[in-house]
Amino acid sequence: MKALLFAVFLMIPLPLWAADPVGIVLLAIGQAEAVDAQGEARVLQRKSPLYHGDLLRTGAGGRLQVRFTDGGLVAMKSSSEFRIAEYSFDEENREQDSAVFELLKGGMRTVTGQIGKQDRADYSVRTVVATIGIRGTHYELQLCDAGCASQRNAPRGLVGRVLDGRIHVSGQSDAQDIPKGKYFSLPQVDGSSVRVSSEPPAGFVADGDDTAVGGGAVDEDSGEDQSSSGSGDESSSDQSGADSSTTGDQAASDSTEMTLSGSATTGESSTTATEGVLDPGLATSVDTQVIDSTAGGTLSTSSAGFVGNAPSGSMVLVAMTEQTATGSKGSSGDVTVDGNNQILLSTVGGVGNVPTKIYYEGESATDCQPCTFDSGSATLSQTGGSALGVNWGRWSGGFSLNENGVAVDSLNFDYIYSDKITPLSVISAKSGVLVYNYVGGTDPITENGLVGTSTSGSVTVDFGSDSVTAARLDLSGFSDGRLINLSLDSAQTLSAVVGGDTLLMSGSCSGGGPCASYPNMTGEMSMTFVGSNADAIISSYGASGNNGTDDITVSGTALLQP
What we know:
Strand content: over 45%
Largest sheet: 15 strands, mixed
Distance between the termini: 72 Å
Helix content: under 10%
Radius of gyration: 28 Å
Number of helices: 6
Oligomer: single chain
Number of domains: 2
């Protein structure tokens, strides 16, 4: 019977019987993916689970930071590959501890966790050049392949440094203990020995740097300039293997919420309890990688049939140029993710956080019941973003847009998205007057598909009186020479606008094309704040007019900052 059960057990696909995550993604910047033991790839985003056997990859410019269940932290550099070859951690049964990682390409930095504290043999990082063991530590590795060697004028092989604790580097011909503050190098040549130095070896690039360390580098621990000979030949005076540096308990505390400090240490660990990321500065970057669209299901007539992956409270503001039976009109609106309203985010052509499906149910019978958007076979263009956690883009052709089950014909579908929406409590607590000026967004587009090349504008907010006192948009650069100027009709209540009301705008169209006769235009702007302290405004707008013969419309999105 046991043999039969074991045979059945082996026939079950790995994800079904080994589905417990071994770690979680803290930050995913740029291209980042995991390939499971069956060869299936999935795009990684913040809070994505990681599993035994996963191969983690970052693309050019990509960065990935993960935390394992034992509290260990790993930051992968761009163009790197890192495999979770073996991993087992049970707080109640430490005899089964095991962590075997493989650095196959590129670089990494890590603070080790609980695994390896009781038995150092439980933890290792393997490369084609050497195997790394720990003595309780925070260290950095760079595997320099042929491309790296050519670019950095350095030998192929493994280089690294120890920022805290001690590591044990075992090569083909010898092994060395590397203490805190020391660098090491090991060329990928048979018989080469481990070289220990006080200066960065040729080919070493400190985590976060863009260029190789050549004539000098700033040591992150001391802040002092270090000049490099590039040879890596200087041997450390401490190669005895004695644990004279920071202990394992100091280097990796029991807390799983750790970050790496950039300050010098005083015999204590360089880790501190903060947000649980290796590099706090990266937390301000746009987290561009999200779950793949195939995981989100399909739109239906009920929100119960569509569950998006955008987090609760996130918001997308949209703008479009609708073609109706009576003409054209520019319009805008917003959707906030909650129990009914849903947004599916996908990675499209390397661009992340792209709303590809939206489901929205209005609060009244006269509102959407529901309104839906599906990108379908549409083309994505006009993409952009901000380190505030905002991104925007334009869908053209091939998408479906429905209002209460009736198809809406629109030339474009513009969006500006963020999950960094400012809490209402923060907005209500602010005082004073701030002017937010245009800094980015999709370019304005007209009823006949002309795209403007110049946008300026501003929104003035009086937080003390809870009002938006002024707003303007000046749109130009259209090939037919038209100029569109819109401004706020009158002051509106800030809390109402943030709650979903639109700013009412009016103005005129002048210059060439259908605007030669200076027709009036009316429209609206949707807006909300993003950032921990209302650091910016995301908005969408649409406006319409008629010159007596033809409809004139414009729509787009905007990011505004003080």
